[in-house]
Amino acid sequence: MADAAPVQSDADLAHLARVVREGVGRLNWRMRSESDSDSPGPAVLAVLSRLLRAGTHTPKELADAERIQPQSLTRILAGLTERGLVTRNPDPRDGRRQLITITPAGVEVLREYTGSRERWLSGALERALTPTERQLLGLAAELLVRVADA
Question: How far is CA 90 from the centre of its chain?
């Protein structure tokens, strides 16, 4: 949006939503294209990231939190377990459930991937934006996190 007029109508909100969606989507696709071809897929990264941020989860908690179908999560967890990126242990309170925990190898994979993306993004921000625009983007990023958590 070129002007800083307050958003007042449903049409303004719809336009803002479209612009934000397109910008976030294009940035996401660009960051993926800049990553290594051996990088984990988005669902795998989401699972590892959630385990790193929020700690041990049951498979159901992971599926619900990441909005992944249980069948898809089963395949993801099998691959992560095989690669040694997560461990599965019986829940001491309910032996029928498993507890999924990220391993140090999983943390390292996540750090390498995010570090690579962040290095590309910081370079792009430096090349494309003025210092003032970078400050504004920082504020907008905080707002996007609030919207995502709403």
Answer: 27
Spell out the residues 6+ positions from residue 28 whose beta carbon is closer than 8 angstroms to its own. Answer: none
C-alpha pair distances (Å), 125 with each of 88, 134, 136: 40, 7, 12
51, 110 Cβ separation under 8 angstroms = no
Alpha-carbon distances of 122 from 32, 118, 134, rounded to whole Å: 15, 6, 10
Distance CA 20, CA 95 (A): 45
pLDDT in tens, 101-148: 999 999 999 998 888 889 999 999 999 999 999 999 999 999 999 998
CB 120 within 8 A of CB 34: yes
pLDDT per residue over 74-88, tens digit each? 999 999 999 999 999
